[in-house]
Design a protein that fits this description.
Largest sheet: 9 strands, mixed
Helix content: 25-40%
Number of strands: 9
Distance between the termini: 30 Å
Structural class: alpha/beta
Mean pLDDT: 98
Length: about 280
Amino acid sequence: MLELISEHASFGGVQRFYRHQAAAIGLPMRFSVFIPPAPKAPLPALFYLAGLTCTEETFAIKAGAQRVAAELGLMLIAPDTSPRGANIAGETDDWDFGAGAGFYVDATEAPWRSHYRMYSYLLELRALVVAELGADDARIGIFGHSMGGHGALMLALRNPALFRSVSAFAPIAAPMRCPWGEKAFAGYLGQDRSQWAAYDASALMETQHTPFPKGILIDQGLSDKFLATQLYPEVFEAACAKAAQPLTLRRHPGYDHGYYFIASLIEDHLRFHRSNLG
């Protein structure tokens, strides 16, 4: 059952925030939804996965997406980035692991496996917005930023029948190779690196052939302080070449890792998805 926390008129539509009991998580979860004006359900919908330390509010407040989404008739859904209130010892000790840092995986290691099941939760939430909010089951895309870019690419590659289009801003594109990913995967999934590949977009792409014929869009700022050590877009680029996957990887001088970058390019991503979703 959805509990409406708040709603706000926005560009003729409505920005809402919901809470619900999530079966996959075993705890209440929050998410945001922008519903465009004069909706004619079912609506094409786009999931946005946020990065480390963010919540369900971050995208709605900072990205400036509602104006273009209203014009395009596009529903926008943004979940929280982890369970909250799991009361696991140490879950708030680090900004890049635990609360606010679920990495969109299903944890297999104790104590995280009881609640940190964000991969399954995203699939649960997708079904919920189709059933309860009028999203079109056949026209759903996914995109995200940083940790959320990793999540979007990974979710799409594992579920191409569920997510018809995918893009990302500055994604953690090869998490098995970077400190953020190694820390998260070891903590949530254990030390067996063979189990990590199921959540690594570059590793997943190497096993496929043209999973998204209409292309994938990635934007990366060249003044991003995390580019050299955490993101590795060139690894994903090489995997796409091997998989014959069309990829538009745009590199932007002067832009960093934050939401000024995202807000500058959000319109391109919304139009990319709207075109692909039909």
